[in-house]
Amino acid sequence: MNALLNGVFKRDLALAYRQKSELVQPLMFLLMVVTLFPLGIGPGPETLQRIGPGVIWIAAILSSLLGMERLFREDFLDGSLEQMMLSGIPLFLAVGVKVLCHWLVSFVPLLLMSPLLAMFLNLTFDMYVALVATLLLGTPLLSLVGAIAVGLTVGLQRGGLLLALLLIPVFIPLLIFATSAVDSAALQLPYRAQLAIIGAMLMLALATAPFAIGYSLKVSQN
């Protein structure tokens, strides 16, 4: 079983890096959004600090939607998804590996780019620390919850619009608590409560999302 799961992980990484245009597109979108905002509203440091966390998180959510649709698309089209269901591997483990691969490919580069984004938006060190903490807790949640919606829409042609309509309202609470944590850091206030809420949401998603993703894929496959 470990060998099969390892094979799923290596295959997903190979497919992701083979399709470099689809891999780079969300990152370029995020970078363009963050760099264009200072040009549009002016370079005032106080203004950038006030809107910076929200801009980064909104850009992260929207850029994740650009690459989310391909999470199970190739597997569905070439029949690998059906073979995965028949292989005897618990489906929740297989989709968990695929979601982990998606997070590594889509969001780890965002974390690596975060110092540059913080510099563009004039974030203080305390704000940057809070931002990274929210990204570390929140981006796996984006992948887990997003994968459920992808599983439901994987069999639909042009399901990207429906995917956005399903996910954007769901991500609003995460956006609120994440930006609130960074705003509290800007005011030198504690933000552990916001991180605790995001962490609780992540723990709930880790416990339930793999089973929900597997069920949604079975529904779409049938």
Automatic annotation (TrEMBL):
Q: What is the official name of this protein in its record?
A: Heme exporter protein B
User: GO annotations under biological process?
Assistant: cytochrome c biosynthetic process; cytochrome complex assembly
Q: Which family does it belong to?
A: Belongs to the CcmB/CycW/HelB family.
- Recorded name of the encoding gene: ccmB
List the InterPro entries hit by this protein, alphabetically: Cyt_c_biogenesis_CcmB, Cyt_c_CcmB_bac
**Keywords in alphabetical order:** Cell inner membrane, Cell membrane, Cytochrome c-type biogenesis, Membrane, Transmembrane, Transmembrane helix, Transport
Q: Is Thylakoid there in the keyword field? A: no
List the subcellular locations.
Cell inner membrane
- Keyword set includes Transmembrane: yes
> Transmembrane segments in this chain: where?
23-42, 54-72, 84-108, 128-154, 161-182, 194-217
Q: How does it sit in the membrane?
A: Multi-pass membrane protein
Main localization is membrane
